[in-house]
Amino acid sequence: MTTQSEQRGDVAALVPAAGAGLRLGPGAPKALRPLAGEPLLVHAVRNLLATPDVGCVVVAAPPGEVDAVRAMLPEGVLVVAGGATRQASVANALAAVPPEFLIVLVHDAARALTPPTVIARVAAAVRAGSRAVIPVLPVVDTIKQVGDDGEVLATVDRSVLRAVQTPQGFDRPTLTTAHDQASDDLTDDAGLVEKLGVRVDTVAGDELAMKITRPLDLKIAEALL
Ligand code: CTP
Ligand code: MG
What we know:
- The protein is of the alpha/beta class.
- The chain has a single domain, classed as Spore Coat Polysaccharide Biosynthesis Protein SpsA, Chain A (Alpha-Beta Complex), CATH 3.90.550.10.
- It is built from seven helices and twelve strands.
- The protein has helices at 40-49, 66-72, 86-94, 116-127, 172-180, 189-195, 215-224, and strands spanning 11-16, 34-35, 38-39, 54-61, 78-81, 103-106, 132-138, 144-146, 152-155, 162-164, 168-171, 201-204.
- Strands 1, 4, 5, 6, 7, 10, 11 and 12 form an eight-stranded mixed β-sheet that branches.
- A hairpin with a 5-residue loop joins strand 8 and strand 9 (152-155).
- The longest helix is centred in the middle third of the chain and has 12 residues, at 116-127.
- Bound molecules: cytidine-5'-triphosphate (CTP) and magnesium ion.
- Cytidine-5'-triphosphate is lined by residues 16-23, 30-31, 60, 82-86, 89, 108-110, 211, 213.
């Protein structure tokens, strides 16, 4: 992707895209399902490449679809086989990042509409010295803790809660150590960094960085495009 005529950024972006998309219902792996005529993954990678900070993109594809995924993305995007869990897919992609990239973002393919402004904000916070940065939004629903039998146990103070999005940004050694030392399987990378006792910072997320998870999300995303 880096050419002599075109100066690209110093940030590598990992895109875990190997999930099945079970909650979206039967069909192709989620990252390959169409949104306004193009796979979700193509939208996500386009927004990353539209962010000047990003100089390297590594996609973790469904293991049987590596060649098909490479063919749908611009030349220079690296494609590796994903793993059985999101965490394993991120680890595979991280291992393929060229050594010169010292800032690494991890971005779900399922957040296909994430604006470059959010991607740039996360990268800027890492460049300014944060070892780990996550984009967040306030929680809008009232949240209750509920027991196994359906009984409400407590109402949680919503004002201290945030919904977490991607891309999550890291200085590379922090992310590498977090993955090397991971024991549990977590749904986000900042959670692994928290377990190291390293401070995780927040920046403002964006509603457009919503994760496409259920059929309604896909309809909303279609309407937004
Ligand atoms: N992911 C991955 N490898 C896996 C599982 C998930 O790369 N083994 C990726 C997905 O492709 C997605 C992101 O992690 O871009 C967030 O996961 P999620 O939204 O849960 O996607 P899926 O796992 O595909 O969906 P579901 O849980 O409904 O099956
Ligand atoms: Mg999943």
